[in-house]
Amino acid sequence: MSAEVEYRCFVGGLAWATDDEALQRAFSPYGDILESKIINDRETGRSRGFGFVTFGNEKAMRDAIEAATVDTVTAVVRGILPGVVAAVKEVAGGVK
């Protein structure tokens, strides 16, 4: 039985105005994006200030963790891989 590995990053500390498309645009320079998803509050529909980006391969994910610049507040990007300690990097900047 083989589990498929996903190359998914948690991205936190995002501006509330960030949407799925802005998140995808911010990370697409690093490689193929399979999915970008901002997590919204169930009751208000407003962003909770974090989301996830799923990359097509490990190199793209690692490059994004190393160099990512997103939104106007400090963000935290964590790589999530089974059996691997998550890499953490604080980033700041802006999505134009």
Automatic annotation (TrEMBL):
Which PROSITE patterns does the record cross-reference, listed alphabetically? Answer: RRM
Share an example GO biological-process annotation for this protein: miRNA transport
Any Pfam family:
RRM_1
List where this protein forms a coiled coil: none
Task: Tell me which Gene3D superfamilies the record gives.
Answer: 3.30.70.330
- Keywords, sorted A to Z: RNA-binding
Q: Which InterPro entries match?
A: Nucleotide-bd_a/b_plait_sf (IPR012677), RBD_domain_sf (IPR035979), RNA-binding_reg (IPR050886), RRM_dom (IPR000504)
Q: Record keywords: Transferase included?
A: no
User: Any keyword Disulfide bond?
Assistant: no
Q: Which stretches make up the RRM domain?
A: 7-71
Give the source's domain of life in one word.
Answer: Eukaryota
| GO MF annotations in UniProt | RNA binding
The molecule here is called: RRM domain-containing protein
Q: Which organism is it from?
A: Carpinus fangiana
